[in-house]
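Case study.
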Amino acid sequence: MSHCSTQNNDCTCWSCPSVEFKGHVDLRACGQAAFKKAASGQLVVECKRQPELGYFDPMSITFETCPQWKKTEFGNLLQGMRVMILGMDGYLGWPLALKLAQLGCEVFGIDNFIRRKLVKERDAQSVLDILPMEERLQLAEERLNSKIHFKEIDLLDRTALNNFIAEVKPESIVQFAEIPSAPYSMASADNAARTLENNVIGTLNLMFAIRDHAPEASMIKLGTMGEYGSPLTGRPLFEGIFPGEATLQYKGEEWSLGGELTPRDPVSFYHVSKVQGTFNVYEACKYWWLRSYDVMQGVIYGTATPETAAEPGLATRFDIDEWWGTVINRFVAQAAVDVPLTIYGSGNQKRGYITLKDAIQCIIRLIATPPEPGQYDVVNQVTDVFTVRELANTVARIAHDEFGLNPIIQRVENPRVEAEEHPYDVIHEKLVNEFGFESQSSLDDEIRQIFKAVLEPEAKARILEQKESLPD
Amino acid sequence: MSHCSTQNNDCTCWSCPSVEFKGHVDLRACGQAAFKKAASGQLVVECKRQPELGYFDPMSITFETCPQWKKTEFGNLLQGMRVMILGMDGYLGWPLALKLAQLGCEVFGIDNFIRRKLVKERDAQSVLDILPMEERLQLAEERLNSKIHFKEIDLLDRTALNNFIAEVKPESIVQFAEIPSAPYSMASADNAARTLENNVIGTLNLMFAIRDHAPEASMIKLGTMGEYGSPLTGRPLFEGIFPGEATLQYKGEEWSLGGELTPRDPVSFYHVSKVQGTFNVYEACKYWWLRSYDVMQGVIYGTATPETAAEPGLATRFDIDEWWGTVINRFVAQAAVDVPLTIYGSGNQKRGYITLKDAIQCIIRLIATPPEPGQYDVVNQVTDVFTVRELANTVARIAHDEFGLNPIIQRVENPRVEAEEHPYDVIHEKLVNEFGFESQSSLDDEIRQIFKAVLEPEAKARILEQKESLPD
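After joint prediction, the assembly is written out as follows.
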């Protein structure tokens, strides 16, 4: 990726999903870099969007010079770029769809609505009321002039998935359609199996569908920082793959570890399913020369984006219960209704965090700079590292100083199997250095915005209705 | 494991599956080593086999001094040890069952017979005729005086699996019930999904069943050397987990990698499923303090063991087709009927190998020295490293010199995505140093034995019937 400037101006047709290699090209026959070198001046491509160009050298046109790529606030994007979002009904999927549509992309979503069902099974609910999909789509069109396409599909239904991908021929595919809860996955064999089946077999089916119907598409897969665990040695948590300078020393000899996947150490069957998905995607890129970025995302928080804030009916879901919520969102909701903020054990557990707005910017920047044929790469999508105690203190301070609330912070025995005191040296450089990501959020601001949203009477009522499902 | 002598005489009740910790013990609350230290003199156990002993210190009785553990040719084994073999109808499962029964274990098998179905779907067949399970069991009883129990169960049927484990309360569980073919897994989305579902969800279900009904059982999981790939740097292929002396160097700093899983690099969705299974087992040991050895097995070859050779009807399956056979077995079968031995590309691909007999010895030695509570460990089950070309040459030489055959070795373009020239430095020390394994086979002897078996008229006929399914 180092060939791309942060604004992706210098990327060439080599990375463009609209380009097809011509002639008999066995991409797998040689290494990626060797092939690219050989390709320059030797191999020709055709542009599916501009067949009138005939055959040409893929390195001869850059995103800056190509009339199909247009500058946006997050780098150049293909005009009317066909982006498919799997899990479009979710917390991240919906605001991403709205944003991409605003940026001129043609957005196609799928979802099986399992998240809505699972939250309901738990007797929990989104604190912000979520409309049925058809109403969301209608509102997006009326208020934002965004026409978004949607089809209810379960990734386990291979036929439906294949048909939709064959029909849409997406240029980029964002895989958010996974069950995202660690405690849910540990609660029973049924839940664990459902998580693995949905996440692992679902992503497997997707890779076959891409191979058969959209092999040039870039695939962006949502993983989690939890795939790495937190090694007690304090070694850096690299971005998925060892960098070239990392070496292994053993019995007086030395080897580069560069290019090898770093060790994974998942902490629940949900996290296991994410690691398992990583291997599915890695294999598909290696074996079939598909292209993917695997996003190790920190814990996400926050509520509104400019698009979801345009109208209450455009809100994205906001879960706070122990299974489906995340910690900062939950703390603010608890403070809003005078429920104590709960810290497990010492509260010194460190994790990486990122706001919803920043996460969406990252994903769009990844879409804007597609991987090369056969490239599998990993980014750590994190802006800050906090301890749980810091978060509780920050929420309590803002609650008190700015909203006149008096939340209590309570510590309980830790029900989890985890080290409470541990180093956590997350490397998160690629998104900034190679994709031009700049954070547009801060913890304090985001907490303020969440307070404003959850202190609305209807939201407060919905928090109180599910008090039972909060940790105590 | 270093606490055990090679004959497992010095192992204590700490590792014994017949022992239960008494009182309120949260095994997960502290690290494994720390807990063991604390346990000595502090914690007490009860023996399910000898309740008359009352409560006692788990470190006070060794396998050598306990009357329940009896010396066998492969170390001490519990008298009438209840061993459950998942996939007992398979190539490895059946001879393991016969051997364990000979050693005085009470053997319980399950199988869903999917291997028989899949081989048939491919229009292939075992070169040695395999009787239906009931007849195999009857013959084993008549000829070897071995009463082996069996139940047809699919690991995806959680209720049946739970019930059987609750009923048997196995002291050791050997997980061979996985679909083992790389080319099968790559041939279609259906096959890949079936492989992942059977292998990954099947093993997940098993871990829950063990947690709920046999948490002290040791679990031996069959993996493959192919989980590691073959890094082109030539770094050692450690036994699954970095040893303490292995360090990471990066930007002038150094950290031990000891205890972390080594990078995996699977080469097909079958291999991916094995890596995914590794993470299921790893998680269950970490989270629930279950106990497991994960066996990274080399390519297996050979046919008879003393027990399967006792009578033709006791033979284990012997597959040679491109999907279900393995390379040495196939080469001998091809030579036996004058079909050329096929080498892909240069033939310099190196892999680790082990004979059926040696593999069974290894598994029994692992059963004999169970892991400690919470222990997840990995062994590389390999005796030799050969190139494909060496194997073809050896088979051709023995065919010519000893059996009067004249096999041709032919090279074809490599249809696989693999480096043909690569280093391959496999570490395989644990089984020898810590479990007392000694190889009782040699390549030449084993090839001779296979020739004798497949040159029988009935076997030759069965090879010729499936000529179409051999590589060409």
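Observations recorded in class. The first strand of chain B starts at residue 19 and ends at 21. Chain B has a mean pLDDT of 94. We will return to this complex in the next lecture.
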